[in-house]
Write a structure and sequence with these properties.
Oligomer: single chain
CATH topology of the largest domain: Growth Hormone, Chain: A
Low-confidence stretches: 465-481
Distance between the termini: 55 Å
Largest sheet: none
Structural class: mainly alpha
Number of domains: 2
CATH class of the largest domain: Mainly Alpha
Shape: globular
CATH superfamily of the largest domain: MFS general substrate transporter like domains
Number of strands: 0
Strand content: under 5%
Radius of gyration: 22 Å
Number of helices: 22
């Protein structure tokens, strides 16, 4: 198929491009969580019993993924969104294939880093291709579907992981290969190739290095703080490096001719508040998801597959709420929808904290609250992503969306760290119920705080609506004159 034929196909069936981009986003987000329920089987197969060692299978991916999101988005905006997206799919597929056949723990950790490099290239460019490649009248709905696919990946990770582990832990990684190859082939044919900037200067590599060091050190401190001790020299040192890295990144961005992060993005209060809200609500959700998995497996003694299936109503509610209620939510300001989602996320946490016991009463104790949490994610995530990206220029699409995704990833990681601090890093049992209940109360507090950060978006939406109405009224008056 030549380029002109591919262009005609995209114009006739833009859903093909959206399906590819949403699938790629689902796959990369899924890989953040799918390994959770498979750590023990991997350790048994690779003859590694230390949970501290096995945790690096999760931590390495989280650190590299969060650190590279913004630099990858910046490079895509400079040199071509499509090229970076396709390259990311190829790297992710190769990393997954290598991980599936790895026979050593630390080789597996290294290949997880390769996966994270590919994922960091896929996430911002997939949204960038939606903003630049979809018909204008379908952009907002496409953003909503794209955001839901990412949330589904995060929520469905333990579910699919539990199912795949029953066959072999290697299937956790093998499943990515055909998905990545199919998405790569279709994207190469139908994805547009917008060139936002013909400038050939390389983005500020020094600023990019500072950003990676700062973000990586922060993520490292968050995921390893419970094991090292929050007051240990290693943890404090990592936080100090993170502060210096972020400070030097901002310093470079304010002076470089081609900065990695365009600081002018944060002059828009909508972009800033949407990022804050996304960070706080992601923190609450990260705490809830791993907390529920841990309680079912350790507190109730459930198997990986039973835990995974019990998690599945949450992802189902994400899609049902976001897409099924779009007819009504599309008529509301995005700030109101996001705030409502935060309240639902908090209400679900309160229900679980109130009802949870050591008895295996899943339907009465967990299911109602967990479905409400899923509904909250389905409402808040698309609304916040849409608010953050709506005002971006075409040359800022990948960079801006990368910042949103980085904040979400760091929020999820911090949520896991908060959970470990509350529950403890050692193996737990049914006697630790009060710790888990405390974790759910904390998640409720974070959820309501996240809902509050969405209120400034509501005021901005009202101001924008008033401006639009004023223009509508005054324009015909000038014409009559």
């Amino acid at each position: 198929m030549n380029r002109s034929a591919a262009g005609r196909l995209l114009r006739r069936h833009p859903g093909v491009l959206l399906a590819v981009l949403s699938t790629a986003t689902f796959m990369t987000t899924l890989d953040v969580f799918i390994v959770n329920v498979g750590l023990r089987p991997i350790g048994e197969a690779l003859h590694r019993g230390s949970l501290a060692d096995l945790s690096w299978i999760l931590n390495a991916y989280a650190i590299v993924f969060a650190a590279l999101l913004v630099p990858a988005g910046r490079l895509a905006d400079r040199y071509g969104v499509k090229g970076v997206f396709v390259l990311g799919l190829a790297v992710f597929g190769l990393g997954s294939l290598g991980a599936a056949f790895s026979g050593d723990l630390w080789l597996l950790v290294a290949l997880r880093c390769v996966q994270a490099v590919g994922a960091a290239a896929i996430m911002p460019t997939s949204l960038g291709l939606i903003l630049t490649g979809m018909p204008a009248e379908r952009v907002q709905r496409s953003i909503q579907i794209w955001a839901v696919s990412g949330s589904l990946g995060a929520s469905a990770g333990p579910t699919l992981g539990g199912l795949l582990v029953e066959a072999s832990w290697r299937w956790i990684f093998i499943v990515n290969v055909p998905i990545a190859l199919t998405a790569l082939a279709v994207a190469a044919l139908v994805a547009p190739d917008p060139r936002h900037n013909t400038e050939t200067r390389i983005p500020d590599l020094v600023g990019g290095a500072f950003l990676m060091i700062g973000t990586g050190a922060l993520t490292l401190a968050l995921v390893e703080g419970p094991n090292w001790g929050w007051g240990s020299a290693s943890t404090v040192g990592a936080f100090v490096v993170a502060v210096f890295g972020v400070t030097l990144t901002v310093f470079r961005a304010s002076r470089a001719s081609s900065p990695v992060i365009d600081l002018t993005l944060f002059r828009d209060p909508t972009f800033t508040w949407a990022n804050i809200g996304s960070f706080v609500l992601s923190l609450a959700f990260g705490l809830q998801l791993l907390g529920l998995v841990l309680w079912m497996q350790e507190g109730w003694g459930w198997s990986a597959i039973r835990t995974g299936l019990a998690i599945s109503p949450g992802p189902i509610m994400v899609s049902l709420t976001s897409l099924g209620l779009r007819r009504w939510t599309s008529k509301l300001p995005s700030g109101a929808v996001a705030a409502l989602g935060g309240v639902a996320l908090g209400a679900g946490a309160v229900l679980i904290a109130t009802l949870l016991t050591v008895d295996h009463h899943y339907a009465g104790e967990v299911l109602p609250g967990w479905m409400l949490c899923g509904a909250g994610v389905g409402l808040s995530t698309p609304a916040l992503v849409g608010s953050a990206t709506r005002g971006l220029g075409r040359h800022q699409t990948s960079t801006g969306s990368a910042i949103v995704q980085m904040n979400r990833q760091i929020g999820l990681t911090l949520g896991v760290a908060v959970l470990v601090v509350i529950v403890g890093s050692s193996r737990v049992d049914a006697g630790d119920l009060h710790h888990f209940m405390s974790a759910w109360w904390w998640s409720a507090g974070f959820s309501l705080a996240g809902a509050a950060t969405c209120l400034p978006l509501l005021r901005r939406n009202r101001r924008a609506a008033n401006t639009t109405a004023a223009k509508t009224v005054t324009t015909p008056v000038r014409a009559d004159r």
